[in-house]
UniProtKB/TrEMBL annotation:
GO terms (BP aspect): cell adhesion; Rho protein signal transduction
Organism encoding this protein: Rhadina sibilatrix
Name of the gene: Ctnnal1
Chief localization: cytoplasm
Subcellular location field: Cytoplasm
Transmembrane feature ranges: none
Pfam families in the cross-refs: Vinculin
Name of this protein: Alpha-catulin
Gene3D superfamilies per the UniProt record, alphabetical: Alpha-catenin/vinculin-like (1.20.120.230)
Length: 721
């Protein structure tokens, strides 16, 4: 809007239409600034330490918005230049200055708000740590139940805050690290519950204590890593030492080699030799591994030797070309560059084959979980000797899987996938010994139901990680074969439409960058409408009302579709989007039924309500027809995507009108003890966005919250028994 104002052409003739358009834009900017500043002022009132800075920034923004509105107040002036009133036509620099002040002050507000969000996450983490300290020291079951209930609520809050932050992160590497840390917290929350209960039931059991201590230690490390990511810092000011993968080393080496075409002097031959030495040193992880096949080992060694020879030849021609830049020498240099790069590509392919074939074999071999099953059986039997035998086998399995993760990291192809491999390696390293200590505890107390439950939880974590490895292996192969870009599906999140019987075996399609740009405006409109719907539903006192719940569900799905237009969120392919549109339309039809039911109970505006309900049914049917229609080819698919989002936007626009109407009718008829409630404070709003059980695909992927609540409920029941 501001760019439109500044770039408008100063034509001698100004039509009424032009004048009105300029005034509308100026007013729109001022109104938008007013809404923005209102939120900023609310934040300032709730955070006294930043109140002064935030208030100053808000005042500056408001002043700039009002200045723009005044300078664009031209629609009522027949000859604005002859009037004493200063306008955009007489003082364009004034608009430019106001725009600069506005952008500067808005940026200040955003930065201050971000600092507050970071502070909220740190405060939430500190509460979790304090409660964990209490949990670690409790000695009675009753006290543990009370404190764990508090801990569960605090973890839910932390999950919402960090989930929002994860989605806000632009750096894919940080996003992957945050996802890994939150996955640890998700699994460890359940482990902490059962490990602590086992320790309380068997206080003199050393293996139970070791088991519990391991869980607490891992949770603290994960909490610390979340804060490192959020604050972009490391403890004691140390720099993060990311392990170097062979893939990234080869990529950098090839870039340097190919750079010789443009500049023969930009690096030294020693520099290039050192880079190759580092790469070949890392290949020893493959050649020294006991799990690499003899054939792969031989090929890797041959290619390593060839790479050294190709580099010697390249350096020789390169040095000659520096002294004498003849046509023949430059052609020889080009051949040497091509041969060097081809050799590195062959080495990369061989390493990828070695790592992925090992991973596929291991995952297939361990898919039956025979060792875990044997540990559970021998533990219940109290057979310590057999448990010891199977723990040795589990340790061997752990070493195999850890080695597999290390090799996969080298060939993962992207930084986020590298981080996922490191996370998987850590998970196997830590979970293996924890299963062993849990099995030993059960063998010592074979009749203990809680010890049996504890072993089950740790075994489930192991099985879950193996399952994730299969998905990770598929991702790595996709990247290698060029089927996937840098973005990745976070393995801990469910895929919508995964088990849908209506999905045909069509090749999944993703929007490219150009298509995303075309559809961005429509997506943004959808985003704004979801905010409006959320705002309306929050005003209802009765959150269990059927109309509210359908509205919230539709808003959540529309938000997922908005994220799709940005190449983000859980809808990864156009097929996912079409499936989501079908479900959205079904939810809209259910809302229409609820509106019909309401019309039978009200007297005023009944015809209007029925008319709107019929309009909603018609729109939803059109959307369903569009979503189910076949589309062959890239152009047709994009047209279908555009149509689905456009029709979803139209339904959401109607929903924004329906919700306040229904609320007004209910209030008039005094049904439900009044349906309005005061707007929630700003800081609660971020937490509330993900708490509705009907909206699992919202920005926050709360980890294990329902199962956590169930565990707390079960414990309360046990205590009463």
């Amino acid at each position: 809007q501001i760019t439109t104002l500044i770039n408008h052409k100063d034509k001698p003739k100004r039509s009424d239409k032009t004048l009105q358009a300029i005034q509308r834009v100026g007013q729109a900017v001022n109104l938008a600034v007013g809404r923005f500043v209102t939120v900023g002022e609310a934040i300032a009132n709730e955070n006294h330490e930043l109140k002064e800075e935030m208030s100053v920034a808000c005042i500056e923004a408001r002043r700039a918005g009002e200045t723009i509105a005044q300078l664009t107040d031209v629609a009522s002036l027949d000859h604005p230049e002859s009037d004493s009133h200063i306008t955009i036509f007489t003082d364009k620099t004034g608009v430019v200055k106001a725009a600069r002040l506005l952008l500067s002050s808005v940026t200040k507000v955003l930065v201050l708000a971000d600092r507050i969000v970071i502070k909220q996450i740190i405060t939430s983490r500190n509460k979790v740590l304090a409660t964990m300290d209490q949990l670690e020291k409790v000695s009675s079951f009753q006290e543990f139940v009370q404190i764990f209930s508090q801990f569960g609520n605090e973890m839910v809050e932390f999950a919402h805050l960090t989930g929002d932050r994860q989605n806000d992160l632009k750096d894919e590497k940080k996003k992957a690290r945050m996802a890994a840390s939150r996955a640890v917290l998700e699994k460890c929350t359940m482990m902490l519950l059962t490990a602590s209960k086992t320790c309380l039931r068997h206080p003199d059991c050393e293996s139970a204590r070791i088991n519990k201590d391991g869980v607490f230690h891992r949770m603290r490390l994960a909490l610390e890593q979340v804060i490192e990511i959020v604050t972009d810092s490391r403890p004691n000011g140390e720099n993060e030492m990311a392990p170097i993968s062979i893939y990234s080393g080869i990529k950098e080496f090839k870039n340097k080699v190919e750079g010789l075409r443009e500049n023969l002097y930009f690096l030294s031959k020693e520099n290039l030799s050192t880079m190759l030495e580092v790469i070949l040193e890392h290949t020893e992880d493959f050649t020294d591994s006991a799990y690499t096949s003899h054939e792969h080992r031989e090929h890797i060694l041959e290619l390593s030797k060839q790479a050294k020879m190709e580099l010697e030849q390249l350096v020789s021609v390169w040095m000659q070309a520096q002294n004498q830049k003849t046509k023949d020498l430059m052609e020889d240099l080009e051949v040497a560059i091509l041969k060097m790069c081809q050799c590195m590509n062959d080495l990369k392919r061989e390493l990828h084959s070695a790592a992925t074939s090992l991973a596929a074999d291991l995952l297939k071999y361990h898919t039956d979980h025979m060792v875990l099953k044997a540990l559970k059986i021998t533990g219940v039997e109290g057979n310590l000797e057999a448990v010891a035998e199977y723990t040795c086998k589990l340790s061997e399995q752990k070493e195999q899987l850890v080695e597999m993760c290390r090799l996969l990291r080298h060939v993962s192809g992207t930084e986020p996938l590298e981080i996922t491999c490191i996370h998987a390696e850590d998970t196997f390293q830590v979970t293996g010994p924890q299963i062993i200590s849990a099995a030993e505890t059960l063998a010592l107390h074979p009749s203990s139901k809680i010890a049996k439950e504890n072993l089950e939880v740790f075994c489930e974590a192991w099985e879950s990680q193996l399952s994730d490895m299969s998905l990770l292996l598929r991702e790595i192969n996709d990247v290698f074969e060029g089927r996937r870009g840098e973005k990745r599906v976070y393995l801990s999140l469910p895929r919508p439409g995964k088990h849908n019987a209506n999905l045909k075996a069509l090749k999944p399609v993703k929007l490219d960058t150009e298509e995303q740009a075309k559809i961005a405006k429509l997506g943004l409109e959808l985003h704004l409408l979801t905010s409006d719907v959320d705002s309306e539903t929050e005003k209802w006192e009765d959150q269990e009302n059927e109309i509210v719940q359908h509205g919230q569900g539709m808003s959540s799905m529309a938000y997922s579709m908005y994220l799709f237009t940005r190449g983000e969120g859980l809808l990864k392919t156009t097929q996912d989007l079409f499936h989501q549109a079908e479900i959205f339309a079904t939810e809209g039809t259910k809302l229409a039924s609820a509106l019909h039911a309401l019309s039978d109970q009200v007297h005023d505006d009944k015809p209007l309500l029925l008319l709107e309900a019929e309009k909603l049914i018609s729109m939803c049917k059109q959307l369903q027809i569009t979503a189910k229609a076949s589309a062959q080819g890239k152009s047709a698919t994009f047209t279908k995507v555009d149509a689905c989002i456009l029709k979803t936007r139209n339904v959401m626009t109607l929903l924004c009108q329906l919700l306040p109407l229904c609320c007004k009718l209910l209030r008039k008829n005094k049904m439900g003890n009044g349906c309005l409630k005061p707007a929630p404070p700003w800081k609660e709003d971020r937490i509330r966005t993900g708490t509705n059980a009907r909206t699992p695909e919202r920005r926050v992927d709360t980890f294990g919250i329902k199962s956590l609540e169930n565990h707390v409920t079960n414990m309360t029941f046990l205590e009463s028994k």
